[in-house]
Structure prediction request, 350 residues.
Amino acid sequence: MLTLLTSMYLLVRAVSTQAEPIRVVVTGAAGQIAYSLLYSIAKGDVFGQDQPIVLILLDIPPMLPVLDGVVMELQDCALPLLREVIPTDKVEVGFKDIDAAILVGSMPRKEGMERKDLLKANVAIFKTQGAALDKYAKKTVKVLVVGNPANTNCLIASKSAPSIPKENFSCLTRLDHNRARSQVAMRCGVSSDSVKNVIIWGNHSSTQYPDVHHAMVDLHGSEKPAYDAVKDDTWLRGDFISTVQQRGAAVIKARKLSSAMSAAKAICDHMRDIWFGTPEGEFTSMGIYSSENTYGVPKDLIYSFPVQIKDKTWKIVEGLAINDFSQSKLDATAAELIEERDTAVAFLGV
Ligand code: NAD
Ligand code: LMR
Prediction:
């Protein structure tokens, strides 16, 4: 009996590992985030342990020699799911028939800058890459924009790819979400998985609003609203918010480089949730296209909302009570996004 079960298991496994490989492109593949990210993707942490992958590494021409080194290292990892690695500096190669695009490639900010100071340096990249996605990628492609200013770059990429549904585009605010989760967990002396349903609203910038009014904390077996678990409203309305808002800048000040390990982890969390869905009863945060004035957020922005994901489709968590304190913060971060969008649109003429 045991032998029969073992053979059946091996057969199922053999069949499942013969699944068609998916094509995943990472841009900025010679950079520091990519260096922390590629191994996790290639070993199956994001798209599943039975999903073979063709990994396409896109960067600019001067970085091709560096990409060669990254390719060698990926080969040397001897990862069974990694069917092929394609280094390239050409969007027509990079985006051809892809299933998932992780758009990291762009300039990071330096100490003393705000992320929106990168707008003029970076947004043109996302116009070009949006147009290339439109032309070469599968229409079902899931696009995650990481390069800053992530929300506005994502909006421009999506506007430049009219044949791909706007819902397929999202930007990374999962790093802020993880930061918020971790800050509350440390404050309560519990592990980060004991904290759920924090929300990042708005822009991945210092106007973002980390909100724990709907978060729950498992305090050693008893689940409590975050405000009751933390028991320090002054901290939750003050230093907690500013710590999360300013965390990227604090990392840059300390490392002289922007966050990479934590960004890569957040990218994996974000894409894995798109592929496999969010756990029952939980939501996450991601920058998505605002089309309905939900929570009073103006239309035509990429704005971070609480979402639940099923069958690779997100849905905004609706009906959450928003007090005046929160509403003013939701509005402030929306105002900044409108300003960024208008600057980008005028600059690019899109
Ligand atoms: P990095 O400088 O180490 O790497 C960036 C890479 O992008 C470089 O290899 C560069 O050659 C490449 N690149 C530049 N233009 C490109 C183009 N047109 N096509 C393809 N590749 C291109 O930077 P990094 O630390 O990896 O950060 C990358 C971006 O991610 C920055 O904009 C940074 O601010 C942003 N970031 C966002 C988050 C987030 O949470 N949204 C978190 C961390 C970093
Ligand atoms: C972060 O949040 O760490 C990144 O967006 C990098 C930055 O510029 O802060």
